[in-house]
């Protein structure tokens, strides 16, 4: 059994030995430092990505289904999708009439590559035509002003609700409400601003404007455009029922033969979840790979220096054994030294990782002005600190085990004789 | 006759050097009593170092028995040997063998660390031992800040601190000048007079003459075992 006094002595020797070979110790821990920095960066990246993703998903709406000609997640054969017939306004209205389980069924028409202008400044953006009920989805939440009304929709009034990025670019630091903005040369009155929704690669979502669907028809026409139909299930629990109903109605509206596949796609945020998962997994695999590599290289370095340490201190081991140190005492002494060496690496790594994380977040937010980065923490999560310390101690123990066994097994007579 | 601390019977130590067998000890039988002051002498190759390693429980014999205070050392495992070295034997080496990075006090405390004493008890006993060897004022010095004689005194304090059954000194004056060597021998005399059992291993007649019994080895056998009636008084 190991005695407390021996463990204390082991810590004292280990610290003294690390201090005596300070530069050597620091250099030796380089591999462990890199490993710990990688673990922390990986953890921070994933938690940041999750935060950004959660933000985006929650704003778009987890309870939404988008029935579209296109598959948003990019699945399926592009030529097949291209060959599908457009979804017409009539079909969208028919579906809206038939849907019973959904809270809202909203036709959406989109002109990509449109532009809006104020004075001489113009901005490329997507122009969306929709109904006033879009206001009832989380995607239609306004941060300023209001969404256009039922009457404005039916009367095809020239009113517009602009996306966050449009406001930021064309009306920096002022309220755009009741200001005039030209869409395809026609002046529209701004009635509201949609709150920020997209983050990271979903940023384009904030680059659009919403106008009443009939105003869209008079400005751009419906010809050669395919409608997208936003269906609000109301809750995630309802998604399956609503999806089944929508698919059933749409197949009948579009006369899809019973044996044929759907000639339209169902798009849900869940599909993006899958993408997010694969990105996450990618980061994990790359991160774990790099980390493992760093720790393997690091532990070889530690093992090497521990062997050197055992050789240098053969005499000391002999003396200790002569005056009563048992195998376990010597074993513990070297294991503790090796673990402390790795722990020192972890402690060196933390300020480095924190500096990287803090500056990356600062640069993203303040220099590159990436709004999405604001939801990411500029601090290393404390849980990661624990994991990294734990991992580095384990690496230290593993790297130290063979040198420690060698030290503890030395013959005291031989060891005393060495110089 | 005083009670025997050490009883060795037909001790043999054989090494294999390649294909050759070398007998360091051929057949040694020996008894040492409590509070004896013994010198073990012999030229190099006589087996005296091997015998010292055996007596000090650093090594185990090939055959024969070694009883220490009634315990059979020849059948002990590593842990038992470490424990008996810790409790029963105080080593003093020719080259002092102090830990260079530890203070005198820490060096003297070391055997008590392995005995499991807490730091307060260790400190008290180590200070007591250092005082006994006249180094109370040098406790915080490291070995490289001490003279040769002072280092050997620290080593002796370390040997005494566990109150062992025997003090085993291997050429304790070999690295010291004559005057300092005499001082150290005087210290051994004091230790013996204090009731301890002292075993000196040496090839110097002058050192051996301090002992009351001189055992001479040659070629792994005891050549002579005589009482020294006119021991050098110091």
Number of beta-strand segments of chain B? 10
Mean pLDDT of chain A: 86
Described by the principal axes of the CA atoms, the overall outline of chain B is: globular
Count of runs of 4 or more consecutive helical residues of chain A: 14
Query: Per CATH, which architecture of the domain at 39-50 and 83-227 in chain B?
Result: 3-Layer(aba) Sandwich
The CATH topology label of the domain at 39-50 and 83-227 in chain B is Rossmann fold
Account of the protein in words:
The complex is a heterodimer of chains A (419) and B (234). Chain A is of the alpha+beta class and 419 residues long. Chain A folds into two domains: 199 residues, no CATH class; 131 residues, no CATH class. Chain A is built from 14 helices and ten strands. In chain A, strands 2-3-8-5-7-6 form a six-stranded mixed barrel. In chain A, strand 6 and strand 7 form a beta hairpin. In chain A, helix 3 packs antiparallel against helix 10. Chain A is elongated and about 105 Å long. The model of chain A has no long low-confidence stretch (mean pLDDT 86). In chain B, a hairpin with a 2-residue loop joins strand 4 and strand 5. Chain B is α/β, with parallel strands linked by helices. Chain B is globular, with a radius of gyration of 18 Å. Chain B has a domain of 157 residues: Rossmann fold, CATH 3.40.50.300.
Architecture blueprint of SSEs:
The complex is a heterodimer of chains A (419) and B (234).
Chain A lengths: L3 H17 L1 H7 L1 H31 L3 E5 L9 H6 L5 H10 L5 E15 L2 E10 L11 E4 L4 H5 L4 E4 L1 H7 L9 E4 L2 E9 L13 E5 H8 L7 E5 L6 H15 L11 E4 H44 L1 H9 L4 H41 L14 H27 L3 H6 L2
Parallel strand pairs in A: 3-8, 5-7
Antiparallel strand pairs in A: 1-9, 1-10, 2-3, 2-6, 2-9, 4-7, 5-8, 6-7
Chain B lengths: L3 E14 L2 E14 L3 E5 L6 H8 L7 E6 L2 E2 L5 H11 E4 L11 H12 L3 H14 L15 H13 L5 E5 L7 H16 L3 E6 L2 H4 L4 E6 L2 E7 L7
Parallel strand pairs in B: 3-8, 3-9, 6-7, 7-8
Antiparallel strand pairs in B: 1-2, 1-4, 4-5, 9-10
Helix pairs in contact in B: 3-4, 3-5, 4-5, 5-6
